[in-house]
Design brief:
Blueprint (H helix, E strand, L loop, with lengths): L1 H22 L11 H11 L7 H41 L1
């Protein structure tokens, strides 16, 4: 019984080591071009304590309203230009 428990324990340890090696591979290259190092660096640098979610939402809302206003003006200008083009075509036909 003790032998079986030791065997199961050693199998679990070996499995845990294999999983650890897959999740955290040993990299010999520590250059700036190493994608694993860049990913780790980016993940650690992604957290910003000064990030203000409310300010970002306000900025997004302002940009969205500006874009909507631009689209309204664009549609108005497009309609006016279309009318002017039709009027010019009618004048040329006469």
């Amino acid at each position: 019984m003790l032998h079986e428990a030791c065997y199961q324990c050693s199998v679990r340890v070996k499995y845990a080591e294999q999983v650890k090696q897959l999740l955290y591979p040993k990299r010999k290259s520590t250059s700036a071009n190493d994608p694993w190092a860049a990913l780790q660096r980016d993940c650690l640098g992604a957290f910003d304590a000064t990030f203000d979610e409310a300010a970002v939402k306000n900025l997004y809302g302002m940009q969205l309203s500006t874009l909507e206003n631009f689209l309204k003006q664009y549609k108005i200008a497009q309609t006016k230009l279309k009318q002017q083009l039709q009027e010019a075509e009618q004048r040329c036909e006469k």
